[in-house]
Write a structure and sequence with these properties.
There is one protein chain. A four-stranded parallel beta sheet has the order 2-1-24-25, covered by helices on one side. It contains 26 helices and 35 strands. 36% of the residues lie in helices and 21% in strands. It binds one RNA strand through helix 7, strand 9, strand 13, helix 10 and strand 31.
Amino acid sequence: MKYNPHEIEEKWQRRWEEEKTFKASEDSQREKYYLLEMFPYPSGKIHIGHVRNYTIGDVVARYKRMKGFNVLHPMGWDAFGMPAENAAIERGIHPALWTRDNIAHMRGQLKRMGFSYDWDRELATCEPEYYRWEQLFFLWMYEKGLAYKKGSLVNWCAQCRTVLANEQVEAGCCWRCSREVEQKFLDQWFYRITDYVEELLAWCDQLPDWPERVLTMQKNWIGKSIGCEVAFPLFDQPGEIKVFTTRQDTICGATFMLVAAEHPLVLELVAGKSCAGEVRNFAERIKKQDRLLRTSDSYEKEGIFLEAYCKNPLTGGKIPIFAANFVLADYGTGCVMAVPTHDQRDFDFARKYSLPLIVVIDRPGEPLDEAAMTEAYTEEGILVNSGPFNGLPSTEALEVIADYLASNGLGRKTIQYRLRDWGISRQRYWGTPIPIIYCDRCGAVPVPQQDLPVELPLDVDITGEGGSPLARHRAFFEVSCPKCAKPARRETDTMDTFVESSWYFARFCSPDFNDIPGLDRKRIDYWMPVDQYIGGIEHAILHLLYSRFYTKMLRDFGVMGADEPFRRLLTQGMVCKETMSCPTHGYLFPEEVAGDACSHCQETVIIGKNEKMSKSLKNVVDPDYLIDQYGADTARLFCLFTAPPEKDLEWSDQGVEGSYRFLNRVWRITIDYLEDVTGIEAHRGQAPLEGDLRVLRRKTHQTIRKVTSDIEERFHFNTAISAVMELVNALYQLPRPAKEDRIALSVVREAIETVIIMMAPFVPHMTEELWAALCGGKPLTDISWPDYDPDIAAVDEITIVLQINGKVRSRLEVPADADEESIKKRAALDDRLNRHLEGKRVVKQIYVPGKLLNLVVRD
RNA sequence: GCCGAAGUGGCGGAAUUGGUAGACGCGCUAGGUUCAGGGUCUAGUGGGCGUACGCCUGUCCGGGUUCAAAUCCCGGCUUCGGCACCA
């Protein structure tokens, strides 16, 4: 009987589906386990990188089920994603129907891999009901001031009529049409995530099972800095300039003031002065240049004097005000006090425009001299030239000066964050409509709850020419005001799709619950938080931060009990492969390459570096090809065995062969023994065994121990699989027992059953088939994960390493329970050891129980 | 520039608390299989020296701590990721 993966896989996939094998039940008495992948639904065809994501989740789900957990494992969610419009047009379906269609489309391919999803849940996120609740949450937030509208400066491409994210701007031009990007003031909706900034930051230290680097990224993104807001009064005129600084200890060294070029204050200050025209030109130039400059490596510091002065609040000194290109309008107050002696940027600026330098923090032991300085001194030191604060260490001065400023009404301690409120407005068709109506009389009026959901119209033209199709759709936006019934206009912006992905995990818990608020508190309390979330590092900041914010907000609305959405997080690595390209045809798919030549033009193919698999680079491996060639089990095994999940995986064709070979080995040894072990029970209990059988049985139990802990504690499937490989090797090594040797065959049977059960989460189809052949009865999915017997797994002979000065010189086989005395006695008789001891004396002996004996010797 | 992670054979990777470096797999070499090929089985496989017992050396580089370092500390190099004129 040959291993025929295709036949087996089709058979079991059909059975699992018919019997709804993987459905979670809410009334189960078992402990719950909620497992979710971080929206990995691809908007096109799935490639092997996706398969890796799903496989990791699937293995965990199958393992946890065998461990007796009630597992909720719905499929992740990316069907609303960005490329949906294009992909929908390509596939000839209306974008509004895209999500549902896409999920159906993907299921075929996903089921072929044997993934054990609870397939009936995720459709809940493509129903109008999903919009209804999302819009309800919006209205609640609007009521509480957590959703608000404000004008903001955006990158705007006039050609595409779209707002561009910073990363969509290439050298100041639109990534799609290469037209120069404009700065435009646009009214946009925001969610006030900054209200939760302290809680989001604090909980970063209470998520022990999240990867360190994700938390670090989130902390950096939030970017908290503690400092002072200080007012610098204007000289010879009323008013003041507020600055934010974290270095209030250097305030006496502030010799000039910098204002962001685009700051409104700039034009106010120069109004009516002779320099006004020049300054205006400067500001215009910087506004445009700024974006361009960001992409170049060296930023030339530029500024222009505004013919205005302000007063240093501590020294009273008269300091000039400049507009500068390197000050950010949207951080802090948009104005910076410049301390050239202790800030490198200010130093460069002062040198360029010949501005005065005053040292206020002196280097201990080696005093600074303004004239001789070649760079700013940014370290700690002792205050000088600072009046009453002279002699204070700078670290203490931070506090003292902050208190002084506060008590004298010159400033106050403040905290600045890098994190901005979350702009959710999108000028796209695809997304949840924002439920607001604008009326000339009543202003912005929320859509009444009973009118929800505001649905997307189906009769729009998707022209692909940019701009929101909704803004061109009169029937959609021409409405009457809910308050006064006069003609009014509906908001045509839709929500960022990140809003939808910020609570889908909660909707999955109660997909059919359509009473207010669309989330069944009872079931939410049972399943949430997600016990294990798995996904790519690319969502480390935005999606995960937004989901955390949303969870806290819904908690404060009383919808959810959890403080955090995801208890444990695994960020798995990417699958990489080298790119191939040809001078004429650009990037090539693997099947477009024959040997080392392009199959279109026969030119030699250029092999590029290893990069993340993506459609645009065409360095993808099609899982269908793998399944056709080797079967889904081999594809799964390869993804798991080659690298631990959090590492990037470099694709290799040869590795796949190895996985296939191993599965064949498992298949052959099982079939080979099948007849002999039929009717024989697997070995149980403690009955003593000798020789090879004892060794095999020990290996069996050691394997259970190893595989269990590798999956349980670390998700290190690669080492778990290698442990099973060792057990299979041991089975092959065992001399074939006689047919009537029932004891030997029972030990063999136990080993074979163990191999099959241990492999079940990884290669479910083949193991089901072998299990059915071997045991019949209950399918493997209903078998519980075995425990190992520590006594049987324990070795009875151990190797003690004999070292001299830490170098291994010999080894000693001793009984596991040998005591220190007897080991030392035997070591003294060891020839190899004694050869190294000639002419030396032992000054110390270090004995590590069960491990080694180290002799420290001198000449 | 700042923050973070990583660096181990020809390759992917093991080594869970400082205690046998290189598990397992790929590749390669040799041999068996009535041996065309493939498959499969067995053995070998970090480097150097040696007929051999064996010896030396070895986890990016340089120091250090320790009886003992891939692992801890200091300095440097390289790669990757994040943030970036953040006051």
